[in-house]
Amino acid sequence: MNINEELKEFILHGYRQYIPHVSIDCAIFGYHDRQLKVLLIKHKFLNGWCLPGGYIKRTEKLVEAAGRNVKERTGIEGLFLQQFKTFGDPNRANTDKFDEEKWFALTGIRMTPDNWLVDQTISVGFYAITDFSLSVPQPGIMAEACTWFDIHAIPHLEFDHDEMVKEALHTMRVQLYHYPIGYNLLPEKFTLSDIHSLYETLLEKKLDISNFPKKLITLGLLKKTTEKRNIGAHRSPHLYRFDKARYDQALSEGLVLS
Amino acid sequence: MNINEELKEFILHGYRQYIPHVSIDCAIFGYHDRQLKVLLIKHKFLNGWCLPGGYIKRTEKLVEAAGRNVKERTGIEGLFLQQFKTFGDPNRANTDKFDEEKWFALTGIRMTPDNWLVDQTISVGFYAITDFSLSVPQPGIMAEACTWFDIHAIPHLEFDHDEMVKEALHTMRVQLYHYPIGYNLLPEKFTLSDIHSLYETLLEKKLDISNFPKKLITLGLLKKTTEKRNIGAHRSPHLYRFDKARYDQALSEGLVLS
DNA sequence: GCATTATTTAGTAAATTTTACAAAATGAAG
DNA sequence: CTTCATTTTGTAAAATTTACTAAATAATGC
Lengths: 258, 258
Prior knowledge:
- The structure is a homodimer.
- The first copy, chain A, is α+β, with helices and mostly antiparallel strands.
- Chain A folds into two domains: 3-178, Nucleoside Triphosphate Pyrophosphohydrolase (Alpha-Beta Complex); 192-253, Winged helix-like DNA-binding domain superfamily/Winged helix DNA-binding domain (Arc Repressor Mutant, subunit A, Orthogonal Bundle), CATH 1.10.10.10.
- In chain A, 33% of the residues lie in helices and 26% in strands.
- In chain A, strands 1, 2, 3, 4, 5, 6 and 7 form a seven-stranded mixed beta sheet that branches. In chain A, strands 8-9 form a two-stranded antiparallel sheet.
- In chain A, strand 1 and strand 2 form a beta hairpin.
- The longest helix of chain A is centred in the middle third of the chain and has 18 residues, at 161-178.
- Chain A is elongated.
- The mean pLDDT of chain A is 92.
- Chains A and B meet through strand 1 and strand 5 of A and strand 1 and strand 5 of B.
- Chain A binds a DNA duplex through residues 191-193, 208-211, 213-215, 228, 230-238, 258.
- Chains A, B: This is DNA mismatch repair protein MutT.
């Protein structure tokens, strides 16, 4: 089956493999060099941007469907993925940007009202965080673009995806205070400055340069290694690593950062 | 259309009015007199207990579907309803308790594999809290029982509802620390003792009798009224009420109880 | 009336945590 | 071997939490 055949099969009979009426959407936040971005895609048949997402295979758990989507768009596997909210307002899919001609040009199929893709869909929102410099954004066959947007320069999004981004960002920031985040975002060994600027970037908030790392160390989350990093004409900072046992415990039990 | 006709219509053509493959389930917590309970139902055709739930009308928002279910089972409207998680594991609906003969006796319809009710379903979990003494549990036509169970004496539940209750309880307790709860659970005017024991019951945890109310007052959440309640041979406690503006602000912005 | 009593409130001191800031340590560069 | 930017430790003040004491109070029973 070539790609075109596969696409036709999906459009006409996708409901055999995927659950109709339910999708997942992913707000993938990208961090690098004190910048915070979000990954958006532009479908070939929709004249507007939206969050990457897709249907759920009948054999998949929700988070696995989200992980598959994240991997397809970024090439990255094993990210911290968190369900944040499910969206189901009756009018959430309203868009005037669907271009029937572009759809036909792409698929060779006229969309009919009885097609399984047309009906009302509830969507489960997940967010993820990654280092965007490690990603290789892939539009895939349905999209013409897949791009990182600065968090402050997000265009108006299709469907209810504006609200999704807002909710995802809110949940992510609340959870930053209650769960350790960084295991997938920082190299195995990193400096206190690295993790400090990671949190400052994600929260868009100043955190005391002296007290913040102290807190992490007091909580037992970080362990000092014997190595140092040479950063030029200054004092070389120690390298730290997460105490995995303590980190996982904090993930399941929660903690309180201030 | 009589009730039986309506039921048949639902089974055979419900997908016209309801969205297939998606449902909501409600963990309705009941509080009264320092007891914490949860409302369970026993379907006529399932030999086990489970959470009340149902399908979503095509015209409804998710929370409206949950509210409709809560009202149908308890008679109470306008409860604080909170989405806590969506469940979609492929094997979540596994049960050996479905009794085909009881189903046929109830509905007069043989369940066929192509029926819209049979296929895999994703369920959006909501929790609610109410004063169970104000409720009038209604089994409805599908269930033979609808009963409050003490939180420590919950039977094993069908499907993945054991996990749902656990998650709902966890979310409820986390949110108790971050949002004010009580507006729907206490009469308009109540004593500091009332709200103190409400929180102790929901959290199953001792809260200092002197410091806890002080915190609520300091946060501006409570306002003292001029009235007092006569409780017998003791000092009469003042009646308080929520400062609605401050309460709503705390609901949207969050707060921190310790 | 008036002492008794159980409970509600207010008060406060100690303990702890957070915050803000100062100063010392460090290591490369000139 | 001094300078410098940055990391790291130290610490004092401020704020909050916690634990406990004591005062206020209102009905009751004598």
